[in-house]
Amino acid sequence: MSSKNDNPDDEVLCFCSGVRRSKIRALYMQGMDIRGIADMTGALTGCGGCEWEIEYYLQELEQQGIKPHR
Fold first, then answer.
1. Could you tell me if residue 69 is inside a domain?
2. What is the rounded distance in angstroms from the CA atom of residue 64 to the CA atom of residue 26?
3. Is there a domain that residue 2 lies in?
4. Along the 70 residues of the chain, how does pLDDT read in single tens digits?
5. Pairing, β 19-20 against β 12-14
6. pLDDT at residue number 22
7. 1 in a domain, yes or no?
8. What is the pLDDT of residue 67?
9. What is the largest CA-CA distance in the chain?
10. Domain tally for the chain?
11. 34: domain CATH number?
12. Strand runs labelled E in 1-70
């Protein structure tokens, strides 16, 4: 990630599909799990290198008490 942009929402978590943190959070807030996010964005369907990063981010959201709207 470039150090010029300090907004964590702009960080790309899946480089194959270009999915950013903000998109993953928005889909999580809509009640989607990691499979739903993959289906909607194409994340996790390329090289697979983002799997741990996305899983960790979703766990981080849960630990912060951020609850999806279900």
1. no
2. 15
3. no
4. 444 567 888 999 999 999 999 999 999 999 999 999 999 999 999 998 999 999 999 999 999 998 887 6
5. antiparallel
6. 96
7. no
8. 81
9. 36
10. 1
11. 1.10.10.1100
12. 12-14, 19-20
Do the beta carbons of residue 44 and residue 51 sit within 8 Å?
Answer: yes
Take residue 61 and report the two structure tokens written for it: 């959201």
How much is the pTM? 0.83
3-class DSSP state of 47: coil
Expressed as residue numbers, the domain containing 24 is 8-63
- 3-class secondary structure, 32: coil
Structure tokens at 59: 């766990």
According to the model, what pLDDT value does residue 4 have?
56
Q: Which residue has the tokens 């010029």?
A: 4
d(C-alpha 37, C-alpha 59), whole Å: 14
**Residue 17 to residue 46: CA distance in whole angstroms:** 8
Q: Does any domain span residue 38?
A: yes
What is the Cα gyration radius of the chain?
12
